[in-house]
Amino acid sequence: MSVEAFDLHLLTRMVSGEGAIERLGDLVRELGGRKVLVVSDPGIVAAGHTRRGIAALESASLEAVLFDGVEENPTTLHVVAGVEVARANGIDSIVGLGGGSSMDCAKGINFVLSCGGEMKDYWGIGKATRPLLPAVAVPTTAGTGSEMQSFALIADETTHQKMACGDKNAAFRVAVLDPDVTISQPRLVTAATGIDAIAHAVETFVTRKRNTVSRALSLAAWRLLEANFETVLDEPSNVEARASMQLGAALAGSAIEFSMLGAAHAAANPLTARFGVVHGGAVGLMLPHVVRFNGEAMARDYEDLARVARGCSSVSVEGLIERLRQLLEVSGLGSSLGRWKVEEARLPKLAEEAAQQWTSQYNPRDVGEDDFIELYRAAFF
């Protein structure tokens, strides 16, 4: 196997294990934190995980200030609200405790709090003008991999455009991977986030920007996720399977940092923005069609994924597609756009928006509006 040139710097320390959240206070203290903004959401607060995180901070003699105004797919309004709380309390460090929305919002708050301006000022790569505050992630889902990325995905409140705001300074210094905090997830959340992580592993393995190390991360993530997804759905209290999913999601998140994503995510974002399709469901139902679209050009790569999977019927592109459809089926998220009441007449507009998504440029095969229309049509029934 040839080794492509690469420039790799893993930005985030991983601390993993049952009960790892109890180390949160000591980890923040190591980074110099004293007054901590905890960014979370009402569901995580209700589950008791936020309280555990705050207790760990307070046991290390740190002061915690809670901002729990995060909603799914955070917007610029959520960031503004969090910045106001942070400024009013003079915080010096940040903890993102929750799913991808909480972690992305925490990064967004850090951008604006540390550098001023508005969220749109950081749309793109390397736009931070000052050092950002030290931040720690405690993911309560196994999905987005945001804990391992330097990007915040924040939607413009007016246009609904998702802005990918990336800067190496925005990466969390530490990611605390505690499988215990994922057990309380509703089945639908486990399913949606798990499918999202699976899509990350598959897409990052074949993007134009991939390299030898990112492919190793993607492959390791795929092994863990494909083998344990059905188990966490059937046995939600299986801590070993939860830990495997959590690590798989983090490894796939690391792969995104270096290889980006592809057409499945580009097609998924307009479905979420325009029709409210759950992100994991959107990317999951588009992924088999994108694999087929890329199949001839990337056959060997997809065969590598099929070869290491437990559930593929054959080492082939079709074997991988069949396995992805099986995983989507057991998720219960739905395998057609019709199930989500997407209007067929809107497909051209969705295709136009998909072609403008930042991830489309990294798909291994050129993909334009006409291609996205065909991909949507293939996923319609």
Total of helices = 14
Reading the helices and strands in chain order gives EHEHHEHEHEEEEEHHHHHHHHH
Low-confidence stretches: none
Q: In angstroms, what separates the terminal alpha carbons?
A: 40 Å
Largest sheet: 6 strands, parallel
Morphology: globular
Q: How many E-type strands?
A: 9
CATH class of the largest domain: Mainly Alpha
CATH names the topology of the largest domain as Dehydroquinate synthase-like, alpha domain
Find the structural class using helix and strand composition: alpha/beta
Strand order of the largest sheet: 1-9-6-4-2-3
Strand content: 5-15%
Helix coverage percent = 40-55%
The assigned CATH architecture of the largest domain is: Up-down Bundle
CATH level-four homologous superfamily name of the largest domain: Dehydroquinate synthase-like - alpha domain
Domain unit count: 2
Task: Please state the average pLDDT score.
Answer: 94
Radius of gyration: 20 Å
